[in-house]
Amino acid sequence: MAIASAGDLDRLKDVKAFDDTKTGVKGLVDAGIVKIPNIFIRPPDDMIKTSATDLTDIKIPIIDMEGVESDRRLEIVDEIRSASETWGFFQVVNHGIPVSLLEEMIKGVCRFFEQPDEAKMEYYTRDSKRKVLYSSNFDLYQSTAANWRDTLFCVMAPAPFDPEELPIACREINMEYSKHVTRLGTTLFELLSEALGLDPNYLKDIECAKGYNLLSHYYPPCPEPDLTLGTTDHTDPDFLTILLQDHISGLQVLHRNQWVDVSPVHGALVVNIGDLLQLISNDKFKSVKHRVLANRVGPRISVAFFFTTYVHPSTRVYGPIKELTSDEDAPKYKETTVTDFVTYFYSRGLDGKPALDHFKL
Ligand code: OGA
Ligand code: NI
């Protein structure tokens, strides 16, 4: 075992002191800090911030879902296939979720994070057996630099979920939002199945839509945004993510080795392919790296809806789908359970090597 250096021990002490406040990054900002604490400072070579979008008008695809049950469906399937193969990311508009509900969801996140500390602190925990966890940086103790972000993490399905477990500040809206997003998710899994040339029910039938987690992120304004990140670059350890972001930019996707802004579009939702869908599609669809810059203005709010059964015990095994492999296109990944995959991901944190690499054949 490596012996921890004095520097490591100092950092651990600072990390623990920050964690013990149970008020996250927002607590630091509320206290009026003007310099960010050392535990958030990233190595300088991580901090290349200019995006391709600053230089060109390259944009992630926007897909209009109007007419998905009509003749336009084939066109939509084509657009989803192309976006999933090349970008791993797209935005959807006319997705059927009222814009007013999206706005209410963002307000609910603000209500939770902006309530008095004492009310919020009772949810602050790293106990992964809990279904509702508020914390700052799930990987605080693994990462080399902490992110400028606090999160409320809710494990809402497949295990029975009692709404009473949710904080009152966002209880009703979280339930209502989840109902709508699971419906949209079901449609997207049908379209993704068709885009892979499979039966429309294929991905639903293998339970890709069975479980979901709701992650409400709060990115406070940052006094020194050039020294840290809102979220370190990573890929998502799920099948699919549907992300709601407010009007503040910061989200970027790695495309052809350049960071491209995912510009906020009012009323749109961002959809991205997760690692597990890349694995079962045998690399046909790409789980692409993305990150969030820290920002002088804020808070920036986002809500990530992860389709995954997470650590729910299941013996269901996922590997490259047989119909998508052949002699010329051999399976590229080992079989795994969702639990084993996400346990591996969470043991590494965002600074770790991509989890998919570990499952490559
Ligand atoms: C995530 C994520 C992006 C954002 O939760 O995995 O990438 O905009 N979020 O918060
Ligand atoms: Ni992500």
Q: Output the number of helix runs.
A: 11
Distinct small-molecule ligands in the complex: N-oxalylglycine, nickel (II) ion
Assembly of the depicted chains: single chain
Helix percentage range: 25-40%
**Run of helices and strands:** HHHEHEHHEEHHEEEEEEHEEHH
Number of strands: 12
Report mean pLDDT, rounded to a whole number.
95
The CATH top-level class label: Mainly Beta
Structure class: alpha+beta
Structure report:
The chain is α+β, with helices and mostly antiparallel strands and 361 residues long. The protein has one domain (21-359): Jelly Rolls, CATH 2.60.120.330. Helix content is 31%, strand content 18%. The chain has eleven helices and twelve strands. The protein has helices spanning 6-21, 24-30, 52-55, 73-86, 99-113, 117-121, 171-195, 202-205, 275-280, 338-348, 355-358; strands spanning 62-64, 89-93, 132-135, 150-157, 212-219, 229-234, 240-245, 251-255, 258-261, 269-273, 290-293, 300-307. The strands form two sheets. Strands 1-2-10-7-12-5-4-3 form an eight-stranded mixed sheet. The protein has a four-stranded antiparallel sheet with strand order 6-11-8-9. Helix 4 (73-86) links the parallel strand 1 and strand 2 (89-93). Helix 4 packs across helix 7 (171-195) and helix 5 (99-113) crosses helix 7 (171-195). The chain is globular. The mean pLDDT is 95. The site of N-oxalylglycine has 11 residues, from strand 5, strand 7, strand 11 and strand 12.
